[in-house]
């Protein structure tokens, strides 16, 4: 478990199914995500897969964010991509009631720090739609820097897809030189 000033980030559990299902069905949360919420059965299978990844790669995977009273805020993740544990991808989703308070940046910085100082990552990446200005700002506050814009083809593109996706990254050396108060 990781602890920040205002939250705890604990590992995902099977019992979190209802919390994730609710978050996945919130249209404000899903506004910039080209993805249909899975059925409860598919979500349960996804959780089982995420738990297996966490077991095989301790410290990676999905983290449930709760305030210090145990109230569910959302989730954060260090997701393994093609480059494996040396370059996890940062992800996050918060309930809209908790937006605009710096919680995404606070949790994200904690996971970036965890990736470098506990897991030995060489870089941390993240991506979002170009038009998702709030998420881009979170990435910047987490120490990640814009690297490139790229375009993907979607069967049912979301509004703003024509502007592309943006890729952010921070290397171990950049993180070591940064001031944690910059976020």
Automatic annotation (TrEMBL):
Residue ranges of every copy of the N-acetyltransferase domain listed in the record: 7-173
Keyword Transferase included in the entry's annotation: yes
UniProt keyword terms in alphabetical order: Transferase
InterPro entries per UniProt: Acyl_CoA_acyltransferase, GNAT_dom, N-acetyltransferase
UniProt keyword annotation of Manganese present: no
GO molecular function terms listed in the Swiss-Prot or TrEMBL record: acyltransferase activity, transferring groups other than amino-acyl groups
Highest taxon of source: Bacteria
Pfam families: Acetyltransf_3 (PF13302)
Name under which the protein is recorded: GNAT family N-acetyltransferase
Lineage per the UniProt record: Bacteria, Bacillati, Actinomycetota, Actinomycetes, Glycomycetales
